[in-house]
Fold each of these.
Amino acid sequence: MKLIFSEDRERLYRWIVDQLEEVIDGNPSPLIGLATGATFEPVYQRLIPAIKDRDLSGLHTVNLDEYYPIQRNAPQSFYSYMRSRVFEPLGLDSRQTLVLNGETSDPKCACQAFEAYIRERNGIDLQLLGIGRNGHIGFNEPSHVFEMETHLTQLSDVTIKDNLRYFKSKDSMPLHALTMGIGTIMSAKSIVLLAVGESKKSALQALISGKITPQLPASILKLHPDCTVLIDALAGEDLDWSLGTRI
Ligand code: F6R
């Protein structure tokens, strides 16, 4: 796991945009794994002008996760987030993008179809990840096992608390989600995790100095051959920056 630190978040955002451009330019039909959340909003804001004039007809994307159950067009759905911030601005066709369907009556079948789609496209070339305060990646919450395949999961109390701000009340917030599995994330050819802000400090500390455990799902990334973790000054405040590269 490679670490990159910066006091300037802008440099981290630009680094990710450069990686995405490299994957798009280096492959006629790349499959990119996208993440939602507050962390990635500035990345997508910078990505759109950088690539919108390119021919993106060969590009396909999958998203890490979606609340369950949720109406696809609800403002809080990850589908709505992606549609307004990425798919529409880039003019991507619905056949080019796959977001797990929070409306499905058969979550198991939706998860299997999601796995099959990734296999058919020869795997994910680059997967973007954020990290939860509790060390979750996608919505793989702390648990006693790593769930390898895409699945329906229960959101943890920490995640419900953190994401409640997007909903009117706890009663209107979905308490479950569909998430890409840990094995599926780990099978991506390369992975970039972005951690910004003070709230990510203790998860980062545990990730870097702790052991590999399903209690901290992100810890599995230490076993990935090409995973880069980008860390800003607040998230990296307690870390030894000489363990990585400073940009
Ligand atoms: C989102 C996702 C989550 C978020 C994480 C951090 O698709 O998979 O793991 O990356 O919860 O969320 P933010 O960026 O809002 O702090």
Amino acid sequence: MGQCIELHEQVGSTNDLAKQAGRREEPEGLVIVAEEQVAGRGRLGRVWVAPAGCCILCSVLLRPRFSPHQAFYLTIATSLAIYRAVSAILNTADSGASHKVGIKWPNDVLVNGRKVAGILCETEFGGEGWDFAVLGFGINVNLEPGQLDDEFQATATSLSAELGCYVDRAALLCRVLVELEDLYLSLQRGQFVAIYGQWVAVLETIGKRVSVREGASTLEGRALRVDADGALVVRVDGGGERRILAGDVT
Ligand code: BTN
């Protein structure tokens, strides 16, 4: 992973470039990084905005051999890789403070309860299974709190804001890619249960009261567990359980 790296000054979306490379039959492991995206995309059809030159905006092209039914393990692996890399940076930095790193279902990486990284996994399938997968991730690295959009001031943060010092983006990206390769190769060997266990262990959502937005409707309740297919199971206020496959949880 990363034996071939493209670094762009400005792109529309690194995920779009990686998908084009996938359709051109380029080999897996290709990494596409940009200093700025003018059409960055987030989950649930949202835009992903990041000021130029201070974040990590990256997409990795992969060609998994496991069942397409297990595609969600790719997002699990990516959030765990970022979780591990961010934890390593926060734990070795000489800041004197302790920082809580965790994952919010399904795959936001949080530091001290606020989002520092988001993941957009996109897949294309042909007649006989996978064509390819693209793992896109954005990490807020050297951002002043004032550079975050107003709507994210309360819910998002950056590594430099939490640490109080500049963070080396290249070193962090390198660490994420090393961790991601390790996890991906484990998935290729079929070690789903082990990786699922590591992900669930750092999920901050379980046991908490949650509000889940799905399109125009919102439900409130308590997050009970995550099913084997990655769905969040919520005990809804007023009775009953609901399985959430793709929602926005706060
Ligand atoms: C989210 O909504 O939390 C997911 C955000 C994913 C953003 C990254 S930045 C690099 C890659 N290219 C994109 O257009 N999106 C992903």
